Amino acid sequence: MALTYSGCTAFRRDLEARVAGYFRDGNHSRHATGRMYLKTLFLLSWLAASYVGLVAWAANPWQAIPLAVSLALAMAGIGFNVQHDGNHGAYSRHPALNRAAALSLNLLGGDAYFWRYKHNIAHHTYPNISGADNDIYMGPFARMSPHDRRYWFHRFQYLYVWGLYSLLAVKWQLFDDYRSMISPGVADTHVPRPRGWDQVCFWVGKTCFLMLAFGVPLLTHHRLAAVVGLYFLTAAVLGLTLATVFQLAHCVEEAEFRVPAEGSRKIEREWMTHQIETAVDFARDNWFLTWYLGGLNFQIEHHLFPKICHVHYPALSPIVEATCRTHGIQHRSHRTMRRAIRSHVRWLRHLGQANSAEPVPGRRSEPTRDLEAAGA
């Protein structure tokens, strides 16, 4: 039996009406604009130039290492912007173009089919709910939720977790998708084994990725150790970048972590309110981060309206915040990325302590205010 939420509230109706008014009055499309298409072209060009430079030009470590880092950041940029909007159906009003954007993930070593179940369904439907949101579960290696079991070594997790984050892409590219093909399923979410075109895209994507990651470089450099080493460097930078951005939006001391009451499958909160209270925005005034992260620093707005292209999030954020203020709902935001990282580290330290079942000391409860202004 799936988890359920409380019924629709006046807040939800008011917010949806205000957002609809923004698109209606401004005659805006909910999908990509010209600048989004230009960004896509730039990111793909960045990816291609970094890859060609690394494989065909780099002749020593001082050339190869910066190009590997550049390649990783270009891959993350495509993930944040192109595949993410495409998988949510937010990139275009044309399903075929959304599908093409989503399949850019397969070029990066992932699989769009399994990602949709893990992210769109398991995470977006049940954010920060232990046992349902697999994105906050790292097994026994780290504790992200107060509802997960604590082990003694978690007291050091705020130090070693960054190494785990750097392994995310390797685990995802070389292990997780294959395991999902053998035994599909994400936490409480049922995942049918892909068939037809989805099955073809899985194997073609994995074959192309392995050829690009290992086959072509080996034909060029003929040094297995160098090829493998550069793969792990690229994957480490990619994994650290992806994981850190996600954690700053959900696994911080200001976000809520809920589970149903014992013997129940219902979250005693309306769905939109739950989305707001389990996410925290950060660096909303930083135009570069907003551009590069595909608006994922506006995590609240993304969770409320995942089918709207991220280029609209900066305009929607004041609307969402004002509506929250009207209805007395807490809208939380860190002014800078540095503040968000500090909050994440404090949260990891808190969960690693023996008394971590207690409330976080100094946790903010004021509705609709910027946490840096409040001294976070």
Instruction: Quote the beta fraction.
Output: under 5%
Low-pLDDT runs? 361-370, 372-376
Topology order in helix (H) and strand (E) letters: EHHHHHHHHHHEHEHHHEHE
What is the domain total for the residues? Answer: 1
Number of strands: 5
- Helix segment tally: 15
Helix content: 55-70%
- Read across the widest sheet, the strand sequence of neighbours is 3-4-5
Task: Name the shape in a single word.
Answer: globular
Report on the biggest sheet. Answer: 3 strands, parallel
Q: Which class best fits the helix and strand makeup?
A: mainly alpha
What integer is the average pLDDT?
Answer: 90
Distance between the termini: 39 Å
Radius of gyration: 21 Å
Explain what the structure shows.
The protein is mainly alpha-helical. The protein has one domain. Helix content is 59%, strand content 4%. The protein has helices spanning 10-26, 34-57, 61-87, 95-102, 104-107, 112-125, 157-166, 168-182, 196-221, 224-250, 271-277, 287-292, 299-304, 313-327, 337-351, and strands at 4-6, 266-270, 281-282, 332-334, 369-370. The protein has a three-stranded parallel β-sheet with strand order 3-4-5. A two-stranded parallel sheet has the order 1-2. Helix 3 crosses helix 10 (224-250), helix 7 packs across helix 10 and helix 10 crosses helix 15. It is globular and about 65 Å long. It starts with a strand and ends in a 6-residue tail after the last strand.
